[in-house]
Design brief:
The complex is a heterodimer of chains A (231) and B (174). With 231 residues, chain A is mainly alpha-helical. Chain A contains nine helices and no strands. Classes of the chains: A mainly alpha (231), B alpha+beta (174).
């Protein structure tokens, strides 16, 4: 039996896959898109940069979650000591957390720049209004992600910043509604371990799932509408 | 306007829609109850026994003694009154015992402006807030803004001896 050339093995594998699902076709459709010349301007890249940053946040976030302990009971609390551990002991932990921290900051800037570009080129107009709305929801999700992530180190700055933000959320009128919001966000009568648990769950499970889902919707809309023509 | 005839199909459609709606509500309602914070095991309201640095009968007129909520188990005081940022039932993690013209007051430590912990200014006989500069007389009334309301009182009674007081509070359970 002749030894097959690697290319033959490769073709056989792709063929086997393509017979079961049109992988080649869908990848071709996704990758080989004509990009109009006007879309080569640098400011059309902001959305893509946001995407890259979100992927970076997801990756570094998963790595941080391996060592982070969302437990605020006791003094010093494991939440705080685990962040110290990531920062000082884990190999490259300082880098992973640094990228996650600065990535979050740059992400917000990039989101605002992307939004400014969409506004500037009028890309929010018909028939693309729905994608603008999805984008606004994602902007709010990013801000809530930043807010909830701020509490997780469980240091004094994190604690009192969250006191302030929950106080602002709790000042919603009427007073009974404000008190309700405050109690639900705090998970009890004061900012404490239940608050950290809630913010952790939102930051790590709920919000990333939502934003990934909405990103998919966002991209499907872009594919459906095409890149908007300049004004 | 004549009423449109209800067909069998419309009737069943509305029936199905209402059943589906009630099922959705019945499914979501327990989740909402689940989300409402359950008090941790061991959370209990009741008087907290506080040992003062200076016994009550040795506090001079115009003198204030600071005390903190116990940390084992984690506890907080419950405000009896309040205005501005404070409200009756709000929690405080510290307070002052003050003697004014023979009368003893127990005040919560939270500034009525935005809730920072006020500090005793022994030289000026006032409580000064480090955050935005509010100042209070030793009886809790406002000496200088931005605070507009007096400091909150804590309900208290004498303890077993002059060194202890019983302050209304809550064991947080975590």
């Amino acid at each position: 039996m002749a030894i097959p050339h690697p290319r033959e093995i490769q073709l056989a594998v792709v063929q086997w896959l393509d017979e079961r699902y049109p992988f080649t076709k869908s990848i071709d459709e996704a990758m080989y898109q004509r990009v109009p010349n006007f879309a080569n301007a640098f400011y059309y890249c902001f959305g893509g940069m946001v995407f890259v940053l979100i992927v970076l946040q997801l990756l570094t976030g998963i790595l941080l979650a391996i060592y982070y302990v969302p437990d605020a009971r006791g003094n010093p609390a494991p939440a705080y000591t685990s962040v110290i551990f990531i920062q000082n002991t884990v190999y490259l932990g300082w880098l992973i957390r640094g990228v996650h921290f600065w990535g979050a900051n740059i992400l917000i800037i990039m989101v605002l720049l992307h939004m400014a570009r969409v506004y500037w080129t009028g890309s929010y107009r018909a028939p693309r209004e729905l994608n603008w709305m999805v984008g606004i929801i994602m902007l709010l999700l990013i801000l809530v992600l930043a807010l909830s992530g701020y509490l997780l180190p469980w240091d004094t700055k994190a604690y009192f910043a969250t006191e302030v933000t929950i106080k602002i959320a709790g000042s919603a009128p009427p007073a009974a509604l404000g008190a309700f919001i405050k109690t639900v966000l705090q998970g009890g009568p004061v900012v404490g371990p239940p608050t950290l648990q809630i913010f952790f769950t939102a930051h790590v499970f709920l919000l990333p799932a939502l934003i990934v889902l909405l990103m998919y919707v966002h991209f499907r809309f872009i594919r459906a509408h095409g890149i908007s023509e300049p004004m | 306007m004549a009423l449109e005839r209800v067909t069998r199909r419309t009737f069943i459609g509305w029936w199905m829609a209402s059943i589906l709606t009630s099922l959705t509500v019945a499914g979501i309602a327990p989740i909402l109850v689940f989300l409402w914070p359950a008090p941790p095991k061991g959370q209990k309201k009741g008087p907290l026994t506080i040992a003062l640095d200076t016994p009550l009968n040795q506090i001079n007129d115009g003198q204030a003694v600071k005390f903190n909520a116990p940390t084992s188990p984690n506890s907080a005081f419950i405000m009896a009154d309040g205005g501005g940022d404070n409200a009756p039932g709000d929690l405080a993690f510290g307070g002052f015992v003050v003697k004014n013209q023979g009368k003893v007051d127990v005040l919560a430590i939270n500034c009525s402006h935005l809730g920072c912990s006020v500090a005793l200014n022994a030289n000026a006989n006032s409580f000064d807030c480090p955050c935005h500069g509010s100042r209070f007389h030793l009886d809790g009334t406002v000496l200088h803004g931005p605070a507009q309301f007096p400091l909150s009182h804590l309900s208290w009674k004498h303890g077993q001896d002059a060194k202890t007081i019983e302050v209304d509070g809550i064991i947080l359970g975590f």
